[in-house]
Prior knowledge:
alpha+beta; 32% strand
Amino acid sequence: MTYQRKTLASSVSFEGIGLHSGAPVKMTVHTGEAGIAFRYGSDRFLARPENVTETTRSTKLGTVSTIEHVMSALAGLEITDAEIELDAPEVPGMDGSAMPFFDAIEQAGSTDLGTAELPPLFRRLFVHEEPVKIAISDGNGHWRYDYDTGERWPNLQSFEFRAGSDSYREQLASARTFAFLEEVPKIIAAGLGLGLDESSVLILGPEGYKNEARFADEPARHKLLDLIGDLYLSGVPIRFLNVVAEKSGHRTNISAASMIRRALENKD
Length: 268
């Protein structure tokens, strides 16, 4: 798998509050030449699955929380190298989607850093922890997510996506994080979701959305957005993979990213 390494043509900054902490944060995505890494204080965390420290309702890399949306935007734009600097330990939530990151980074432009090569995946990889399933193979960027809540509305939503910056922008980037109405008090009691409001989170009631959805199947699209961000920790451009996932979350996504890394390094 030969691909073009790319970084930003210029730095771009974001200011907001953390989705879960509610704390103000400024984040600057700088140009880079040593992979994707997050910097907070004197610490630098390379964006790799082995550096993930927590997966409860978000993906935490070292001490930096909720990296999945900006990682997903970088994957959609095929940015392979960037230094991401923060002045607080959580990525700003913006509007709960990847679109603000995608738009600003795209407008900053990109610079080629030469080509790199990865070995192909010689076998299919599976995460199967009933009812969660993830299947990954060498492919052409065909991704599908099956979001299934059983008897609880919205029941089954499926969304398919073919990797490309235009399709990512139009089909995935603006899909927001979501929560079940009955879970909101528990989320708040756990000290999470403190930076969310009706503009940045889609609320799923027992029979329908409690605020306006951007897509009829927005939860399935956002779960796929998260999956892309988490699997991009493997370092593999998303157009080289075919992925089908069902009921997966951050923990199993990171397990799958680790499996990809081990397979590429011939450790399995």
